[in-house]
Automatic annotation (TrEMBL):
Residues 1-18 form the signal peptide. It is found in: Cell envelope. The keyword Ion transport does not apply. Gene3D superfamilies: Cytochrome c-like domain. The lineage of its organism: Bacteria, Pseudomonadati, Myxococcota, Myxococcia, Myxococcales. InterPro entries: Cyt_c-like_dom (IPR009056), Cyt_c-like_dom_sf (IPR036909), Cytochrome_c_Peroxidase/MauG (IPR051395), Di-haem_cyt_c_peroxidsae (IPR004852). It comes from Archangium minus. Pfam families: CCP_MauG. Residues 371-408 are annotated as: Disordered. Residues 48-180, 200-356 form the Cytochrome c domain. This is Cytochrome-c peroxidase.
Length: 421
């Protein structure tokens, strides 16, 4: 059996007996209180379930043609993403959505870009059955195929005390995913009292993040809210690049009004209706073109960005926000021009790279170099709109005087131990 990933191995707080859930040792930046709230008592991962779940997560035999595993789109070496704009499933079929990271997914209120799954268990089930992801025809077919692998028959009986079934298979994968938390970034050390953990540019970026750039409106991050996500859904105009939302929504309503979870999953990944986002789940007009606010932890190494992977670098992402997004009838009311200068954009990018966990420091250097090399190729850049020289996208947020006091430093908690007690 493949060894547990380094994060999972180091996470167990002590030696657990078989079937016993031991409290995990959480990295700095991951709240123990948040973990307790997020993990139901009956789903606390045990070493045995995590080991079985990791094996399933990496097993291509869960797909119809033995070519794709969960790890294909969520590669642990790439911070549990695949580095592609949109993911590729069996028979080289390309989906409509970018693969979000599994890291810290256990803390999310909902799963997937449109929140169509409420738990990690529900999330684990759907890709295995989606025709263009892993392509298995039914839960029964999955169970029959996995039962045909002798070691799994033995392991499921040992771990769950009963014959293999689809719910337990999903529960094992979810147990593995609940051990994939991520902290230990330079930002975490800064927040814990190490003023030298961030350089001057990163500190300026943190101040912009909380001020002029208005990032914290949806991506607030602090000791009690360490995810850098409001867990809500917003239309920021990304999907408006492609089509008329009103016409598409009217057409979709005829199809999804009585749609079940499986149908919504297929519409989201296989059709033009993918761009309607949360609307496919709620059928609420206010949700047209809205997608979940992703976590910014490890954002420097989890591109391309947005639900469709259409933005290649963090400079592209900031350019999009700087001009106020793309106008459409359902644009979130919080979207407005930011008026960020080029040095300010550089500082903001620097700060976001400081949210990378130490586990991925080598990948961080590689990705920063790659993105910097593309810095002069900026398809989303519209300086005139960002600076208010065209259009009418509102007043700018205040720009604090950092010579007096950097407001971002108010988040420091003084000298404390940088390891979890």
């Amino acid at each position: 059996m493949k060894a547990l990933t380094c994060m999972a191995v180091l996470a167990w707080g002590g030696t657990a007996l078989a079937g016993e859930a031991s409290p995990p040792k959480l990295p700095i930046g991951v709240s123990a209180a948040l973990y307790d709230i997020s993990v139901p008592p009956d789903r606390k991962p045990t070493p045995e379930r995590v080991a079985l779940g990791e094996k399933l997560f990496n097993d291509k035999r869960l797909s119809a043609d033995d070519s794709v595993s969960c790890a294909t789109c969520h590669d642990p070496k790439r911070a549990f993403t695949d580095g592609k704009a949109t993911s590729v499933g069996i028979k080289n079929q390309v989906g409509q959505r970018n693969s979000p990271t599994v890291l810290n997914a256990l803390f999310a209120a909902t799963q997937f870009w449109d929140g169509r799954a409420g738990t990690l268990e529900e999330q684990a089930m759907l890709p295995i059955l989606n025709p263009i992801e892993m392509g298995m025809p039914s839960p029964e077919a999955v169970v029959a195929k996995v039962k045909g692998i002798p070691e799994y028959r033995t392991e499921f009986q040992k771990v769950f005390g009963r014959e293999l079934n689809y719910d337990d298979l999903a529960a094992a994968i979810a147990a593995f995913e609940r051990m994939q938390f991520s902290g230990n970034a330079r930002f975490d050390r800064f927040l814990a009292g190490d003023a030298k953990a961030l350089n001057a540019s990163e500190k300026r970026g943190w101040a912009l993040f909380n001020g002029k750039a208005r990032c914290n409106t949806c991506h607030a991050g602090n000791a009690v809210s360490p995810l850098f996500s409001d867990q809500k859904f917003h239309n920021i105009g990304i999907a408006a690049h492609k089509q008329d939302f009103s016409k598409l929504a009217a057409e979709a309503l005829k199809i999804v009004r009585t749609g079940d979870e499986k149908q919504i999953d297929e519409l989201a990944l296989e059709t033009k209706f993918s761009e309607l986002g949360r609307f496919l789940v709620t059928k609420n007009e206010n949700d047209i073109g809205s997608f979940k606010t992703p976590t910014l932890r490890n954002v420097g190494v989890t591109g391309p960005y947005m639900h469709d992977g259409s933005l290649t670098t963090l400079w592209d992402v900031i350019d999009h926000y700087n001009k106020g997004g793309i106008a459409n009838p359902f644009l979130d009311g919080g979207m407005q021009r930011l008026g960020l200068t080029e040095p300010e954009i550089d500082d903001l990018v620097a700060f976001m790279f400081a949210l990378t966990a130490d586990d991925f420091s080598a990948l961080e250097k590689q990705e920063l170099a790659r993105q910097r090399a593309r810095k002069n190729n900026r398809p989303e850049r519209d300086t005139a709109a960002a600076l208010g020289k065209k259009g009418n996208l509102g007043d700018l947020a205040p720009n604090p005087n950092l010579d007096i006091k950097n407001p971002a430093e108010l988040g420091l908690y003084g000298p404390v131990r940088l390891t979890e007690k």
